Amino acid sequence: VNVVKLVRDVQVKSIEQTLKHAEKYLGDICSLLAAYTRKTAKLRDKADLLVVQLFDFSRTEDPELQISLKNLAEDLAMVQDYRQAQVERLETRVVAPLKAYGDIVKNKRAELKNLSTDLNKELKELQKLDKLRVRNPADRQSIAEVNVQKSSHNAQRSIRQLEDSITDFQRQKLDDIKKIFTDFITVEMLFHAKALEVYTHTYHNLEEMNPQKDLEVAYASDTAGNSTSHYAGSVLASPKSQSLRTTMMSTAAQNHRLQRSQYPITAQRVSPNETFHRTEA
Amino acid sequence: VNVVKLVRDVQVKSIEQTLKHAEKYLGDICSLLAAYTRKTAKLRDKADLLVVQLFDFSRTEDPELQISLKNLAEDLAMVQDYRQAQVERLETRVVAPLKAYGDIVKNKRAELKNLSTDLNKELKELQKLDKLRVRNPADRQSIAEVNVQKSSHNAQRSIRQLEDSITDFQRQKLDDIKKIFTDFITVEMLFHAKALEVYTHTYHNLEEMNPQKDLEVAYASDTAGNSTSHYAGSVLASPKSQSLRTTMMSTAAQNHRLQRSQYPITAQRVSPNETFHRTEA
C-alpha cells in the first residue's frame, strides 16, 4: 500500500504536468494565433485605405486609367471582404476553441483533485485495515476481510476514474488539436484560393489596359480644343477650352500667317475627324 | 499675344496641377503600399513565433501528434519564407518605383519651370516687336518682320517642348502605373498560389493524423508498464515505469487476490501482445 501511495503521488504529479503543458502550450499558441488574426485585420485595414485612395485617384484620371484603377480598387476591396471572413473564421474556429482550453484545464484539474482526495481516503482506509490484519493474522475470515475487499474495490475504482479522466482529456485534446489546426489550414486555404481567383481577374483587367488610349484622348482634346477627358480638362483647360498651341495658332495666323511650317505633325496621334485644325491651317 | 499669355498662364497652372495630383496620389498610394508591406512583414513575424511554439509543443507530445505538429510547423515556416519573398518583392517592385515618383515630379517641375521661363522671354520679345510694328505700320518688310518671325518660331518651339514634356510625363506615368500594379498583383498572386500549394499538402497531412494511435501508445505503456512515449513518460512515469493501476494490481494480488472481477476490461484499447497483464491476472 505504501508503494501504491508513492506511485500515486508520482502519477498525480505527472497528470498535473500534463495539464500544465496543455495549459502553457495551448495558451501560448492561442495568444499567437490571436495576434496573427489581429495582424491580419490590420493588413485588411491598410488595404481598405489603399482601396479608398485608389478610388480617389481614379476620379482624377482619364477614362482608360480611371476604369483600370476602379476595377483594381474593387477587386482589392473584394479580397479584403474575404480577409474579413478569414479574420472572423480564425476568431470563431481557431482562437475561441483554443481559448476554451483555459477553462477545460481548470475544470479537469478540479475533477482530478476530487478523485485524488477520494483515492487518498480509500488508501488510508486500506492502510488501517492492513494494520488491523497484521495485529490479528488468525482473523482472516472476519468482518475486516470484507471491509478490505470493499475498500480495495473503491480504491481501484477511483484509480480507474483518475486514469479515464486523464485519458478522456488526452483524447479530447488530440481531437481538438487536429480539428483546430485543420480548421486553421482550411480558413487560410479558402482565403488564398479566393484571393488568387480575384487577382487572376484583376491581372487580366490590368493587362487589357491601354495607356495609349488616354494619351490619344488628351491629345485629341488638345488639338480639337474640345475637352471631354478629365486629364485634358485639368491640364489644358482654358477659358475657351482651347489649348495654348491652338490659341497661338489663331493669333499667329491673324498677325503673320507664319505658322504653316512650324505646325507640329500630330496626325499619327489624333483620329481622322479631329484633324480639322491641321487642314484648316 | 495677350490672349496667348493668359492661356499660357492657365496652362502652366494646369500642368502644375497635374504634377501636384501625381505627387499627392502616387505619394499617398506609395505610403499605403509601404504600410501594407510592413503589416505583411509583421504577420510573417507572428507566424514565425507560432512556428517556434509549434515545434516546442511537438517535443512534449506523443509520436503521432509530434509528427503532425512538426509537419504543420514546417509548412507554416515555408509559407513564411514565401511571405518574406512577397515582402521583398513588394518593396523593390512596388514601393520603390512609386517612391521614385517624388523625384520624377521634382525634376519635371524644374524642367517645366525652365521651359516656362524661356517662353516668357520669347513672348515678351514678340510683344515688343508688336508695339514696334504698330508704331511703324509702313515698315512691313523691315528687319523687325524677320525678328517677329524668329521670335514666333522660338515661342512655338518652347510651347511644343512644354507640351511634349508633360505628354512624356503622362505617358511614363500611365506605363509605370500599369507596370507597378501589375507587379503588385503578380507578387500577391505568387504568394497566394504558393501558400495554397503548401497548405493543401498540410491539410492532407493533418487529415492522416490518427489521434487514436497516441492514445494506444499511452495506454499500451500504461498497461505494459513499459514507456516509450513521451506522453506516457510524463503522465505515467513512476520509479519503476509502472502505472498506478499495475502497481495496485500486484499489491492487491499479493495480499488478497481479489482483483480478478474488478480488473478493467482494456482489451479493445490495447494490441494483442500488450494484453499479458489481463491474462496474467
TrEMBL record, chains A, B:
Keywords: Coiled coil. One of its GO terms (biological process) is cilium assembly. The keyword Magnesium does not apply. It comes from the Eukaryota. Residues 105-172 form a coiled coil. InterPro entries: AH/BAR_dom_sf, CBAR/FAM92. SUPFAM superfamilies: BAR/IMD domain-like (SSF103657). It is found in: Cytoplasm, Cytoskeleton, Microtubule organizing center, Centrosome, Centriole. It holds the Pfam family FAM92. GO terms for cellular component: centriole; ciliary basal body; ciliary transition zone. Its main location: cytoplasm. This is Family with sequence similarity 92 member B. It comes from Anabas testudineus.
